[in-house]
Write a structure and sequence with these properties.
Elements lengths: L2 H7 L37 H5 L5 H15 L5 E5 L2 E3 L4 E5 L10 H5 L2 H9 L10 E2 L5 H10 L3 E6 L3 H8 L6 H8 L4 E5 L7 E5 L3 E8 L1 H8 L11 E4 L23 H16 L2 E4 L2 H18 L7 H26 L5 E3 L2 H33 L2 H9 L5 E3 H11 L3 H11 L4 E5 L2 E4 L4
Parallel strand pairs: 1-10, 3-8, 3-9, 4-5, 5-8, 10-11
Antiparallel strand pairs: 1-2, 6-7, 12-14, 13-14
Length: 442
């Protein structure tokens, strides 16, 4: 059976270790959901509370993964993985067709609004002046904002195209910052001021979390290629299309979600205040380390010989599982008001982390299989029109050439840069900010 057949049948790509097999909704079924209704009683707050607001399995998964992503950018916990100390920051992206319900993710952001307002008023206890950072920003502005927040922040966008457009601008390219931030490697920036002294910015340990959603056609202009580095850093989750009409009347739900957020928002504030006052280190037991090494060794053996481009993804999924353990352990600790400086991860949370990475691996594999088809779809239409203009350019060209082409095509700069991103790297190579080259043979 091929990997695509396995995906269609719902079977797990990576065989589960007997010691870490989790309960399914019914005997003999394979879990493709991130969390099930039976998991709710075990989840720590506020994940349990936000998931209980969902009206179906898909909403529950979206609220869970988006809330988990934001929490990873707010919690004061570290852990040692592969000889390096890490913070729990995650990169999460959800793909779904238009009008498929992914907009429910916005409530995960709203869940942290009261905490964010408190941080703005009292930044000192939390070591930052804000929680959320905009995706629609320039590289220099983002670096400056990270100085204010001591390197920490969450970029949350329900339309991935917002980040794609920023990265596609000459002034907005900060892909390198995201690549380094995931590994928490130092980042620096120097800009010569207009008639004034140069500005030098250095952030020793960037701690950025990304939570994004978008349609499948928005994914590849952002990621560009499997080999580009961003692909392997993301947790991918996919919402399948639902072609059934649902009851949209008041009786079809328990009321507006906004009206039910307050108690969970209070829980978020309480937990994160305790967490900021009592930072700690999360540890795995020797047995958990053995299972983790075995789990991802098996994943590597099963996937990489057939899809060698996935080797980076598998390695970073191992780190991702460790980071999920950090978040869940911090929530458990806050519930218990445990002030210990080191806390071992619960087995249930550890097993959930491994299950999540199995699901993310399957979605990543599907995206790799879809990549050639999606890339072709993107470059048809407006992207194809821009390509026809580019073919008239000299071998190397500039942003000014593209602006003139956009005028001739009667498209705005936002659309032009989105189309340009879709043409990379197959047709166009970016040399540096503002300069490009046509790819030979294309």
């Amino acid at each position: 059976m091929s990997e695509n057949d396995k995906l269609e049948s719902g079977s797990t790509v990576v065989p589960a270790n007997n010691e870490t097999t989790r309960e399914t909704e019914s005997a003999g079924t394979t879990r493709n959901n991130l969390v099930t209704s039976s998991d709710l009683k075990e989840l720590p707050q506020p994940l349990k509370g936000i998931c209980e607001l969902a009206s179906n399995d898909e909403e529950r998964d979206l609220l869970f993964i988006s809330t988990l992503g934001v929490l990873s950018g707010c919690i004061s916990v570290t852990g040692v993985y592969d000889k390096q100390r890490f913070y729990p920051n995650l990169f999460v992206i959800v793909t779904a067709p238009p009008a498929s319900g992914k907009g429910v993710m916005k409530y995960a952001r709203k869940l942290f609004n009261p905490f964010g307002e408190m941080v703005k008023k009292l930044p000192e206890p939390f070591g930052k002046s804000r929680v959320f950072l905009p995706a629609n920003t320039s590289s220099a502005a983002l670096h400056a904002a990270l100085v204010e927040t001591q390197g920490a922040g969450v970029i949350f966008e329900t339309e991935a195209v917002t980040l794609t457009n920023a990265l596609g601008q000459d002034w907005g390219s900060f892909t390198d910052l995201l690549l380094k931030a995931f590994q928490q490697e130092p980042i620096s920036l120097m800009r010569k001021g207009s008639g004034g002294p140069s500005t030098f910015i250095e952030i020793e340990t960037p701690r950025i979390s990304l939570v994004l959603s978008g349609t499948p056609t928005q994914l590849w202009p952002l990621i560009e290629s499997v080999a580009g580095g961003l692909f392997s850093r993301f947790f991918f989750f996919e919402l399948k299309p639902n072609y059934m009409w649902r009851d949209v009347s008041p009786k079809g739900s328990n009321g507006a979600i906004d009206d039910r957020l307050a108690p969970i928002q209070d829980c978020v504030k309480e937990n994160l205040i305790f967490d900021a006052q009592n930072p700690f280190e999360m540890m795995l037991s020797e047995g958990q380390w053995d299972v983790l090494n075995c789990h991802f060794s098996e994943m590597m053996k099963n996937l990489v010989p057939i899809h060698p481009e996935l080797h980076s993804s598998v390695k970073r999924l191992g780190l991702g599982a460790f980071k999920v353990c950090m978040v869940l352990t911090a929530l458990r600790r806050a519930e218990r008001k445990d002030q210990s400086s080191t806390v071992e991860c619960d087995d249930w949370d550890f097993e959930l982390a491994l299950h999540l990475t199995d699901v993310f691996a399957k979605v990543a594999l599907k995206h790799i299989s879809d990549l050639p088809i999606q890339a072709d779809c993107i470059t048809v239409g407006k992207g194809q029109r821009l390509l026809q203009e580019i073919q008239k350019f000299p071998n190397e060209f500039t942003s000014l050439d593209l602006v003139e082409a956009a005028k001739r095509l009667e498209i705005d700069s936002r659309t032009m840069y989105l189309d340009l991103a879709a043409l990379q790297p197959k047709y166009v190579e970016k040399l540096k900010n503002g300069r490009y080259r046509k790819v030979k043979g294309s």
